[in-house]
Amino acid sequence: MAGELQGKKIAFLVANEGIEQVELVEPRRALEAAGAETVLIAPEAGVAQAFNHLDKADQFDVDVTAADASADEYDGLVLPGGVANPDKLRMEPAAVQFVRAFFEAGKPVGAICHAPWALIEAGVINGRKVTSFPSLQTDIRNAGGEWVDEQVVTDSGLVTSRKPDDIPAFNSKLVEEFAEGVHEGQREKTHA
Questions:
Q1: Minimal CA–CA distance to 168: which of 183, 190, 152?
Q2: Is 37 exposed, middle or buried (0-12, 13-18, 19+ CB in 10 A)?
Q3: pTM above 0.70, yes or no
Q4: Is 160 helix (H, G, I), strand (E, B) or coil?
Q5: How far from each other are the two terminal CA atoms of the chain, in whole angstroms?
Q6: Is 113 a catalytic residue?
């Protein structure tokens, strides 16, 4: 529904290379269609190289670097997947702190495919029910999360999905959770 997210500013955090293009483009399009302003954040200024699985796809201009970004300026966060993207992000301290700040503030976050790796690195998976690409289930369980094989899972403002086929359900839940705003349950789980 157009306008649900009018006045909301949503951050998309990606590495400068390795993003699964459809997991960036489709959620971004859905959130903008619902009225949100989206901002692309990456560790380095310039461009972010997306991929269609392992083949290079489009490049996207980076709006803000992770070091210069503050969660205070955004109403929500989306973490697209791709195997390389979250693996690179979890090695960037500014990106990890940016992710953690959303949970500390109780702001909604969406993560798809391999993106929960960034959540694990930020230390925010413990006690949460999440889904992801199946190869992450052991990592999630080892970090204290409950992994389930479902199309989309919501846990106190955290929306997770498994793969590109889940994007329609993921997008719908993102719009719903971002429209709701701050989730006190998310903040409480982060500080537990």
A1: 152
A2: middle
A3: yes
A4: strand
A5: 35
A6: yes
